[in-house]
Amino acid sequence: MRRTSKSHQILGSLGLTGAALIWGLSFVVVKDSADAVPVLYLVALRYLLAEFGMGILFFKKLKGLTKEAVRQGMVLGFFLCAGQFFQTLGCKYTTAGKNAFLTTTYVILVPFLCWWLEKEKPRKAQIFAALAALAGIALLSLEGSLRIQTGDFLTLVCGGMLAFHILFIDRYTGKTDPILLTLLQFFFAGIYSWGMIGATGIPFPVQIWERELLLNLLYIGVGSTMLGFLLQIVCQKYTNPNVAAVLLSLESVFGMLFSVLFLHEVVTWRIFTGCVCMLAAVLLSEIKETSKTK
Asked: What would the mean pLDDT of 60-83 be, rounded to a whole number?
């Protein structure tokens, strides 16, 4: 973990929690929009708006552009685009609350990916956390026939992509300006998503000019994407990637709360128990780490 002051760690943690709150509300907004707008356009337009906003605010950051920064932006943009594509598609076929909790499988995956990539062996608590997460996933996703539902599977793929995104952010922000990285990841994520639209030939959804959809899109693009990921990439510089994953996973709690409040989703005992298992897994995975940082 990088040596940072206590005040920087606190501010970083508050910023990551703020990002989780913003993303929690976005599950409701995306669910409300996914049936009216094709998923690829939701993903592509959010990056277009985010890149436009970032360009206005931080255009001068491009003076620090290097070949290495471009390469890093391409990698981050790929995992971000893939993660949000599968998340948005998954949200279309499952509830916003379940989508929020299953997305946070990245917090369980990060320690094991660190083991694979950085040779850092996971602790026993993290192994127990993985088992608790599997129980939560089963309760949330498996049908009576023990077959995982399509939307839930797609969301789990999203969690894997976002786990890689967190790890590479940690690797790159020690070398490159995090704001420049944010600009570049949005740029390349936009290229990937608009490229898929061109390859599939999906017609432009003219219904996005309707007031409600336009407001939803502005929140997804400027709020959830630009502000949320700017907070993540800047604040994660001052935290350990495992701790960052735990704080960001609070989006699942916020997502479930907002889905009940605004979408009136019904939480059955099975879903509630699954959510408790997922939340327990998140807390268990980092209980030792967080106790060290106090």
From this structure: 94
User: If you search the block for the tokens 């879903």, which residue do you land on?
Assistant: 271
Alpha-carbon dihedral angle through residues 243, 247, 251, 257, given to the nearest 10 degrees: 130
User: Which residues, in sequence order, are CB contacts of 59 under 8 Å at separation 6+?
Assistant: none
Rounded to whole angstroms, the maximal C-alpha distance in the chain is 57
Encoding tokens for residue 179?
A: 């704001």
Residues 6+ apart with CB under 8 A from 87: 30, 99, 103, 154, 155, 158, 162
* pTM for this prediction: 0.82
The domain spans of the chain are: 6-292
| Contact between 241 and 166 (Cβ < 8 Å) | yes
For range 184-189, the mean pLDDT: 95
Q: Which two tokens stand for residue 240?
A: 């350990």
State whether residue 118 is helix, strand or coil. Answer: helix
For 9-13, what is the mean pLDDT?
Answer: 84
Burial classification of residue 160, based on how many CB atoms lie within 10 Å of its CB (0-12 exposed, 13-18 middle, 19 or more buried): middle
pLDDT of res. 109: 84
Angstrom CA distances, 152 to 5, 41, 148, 178, 240, stand at 40, 21, 7, 32, 28
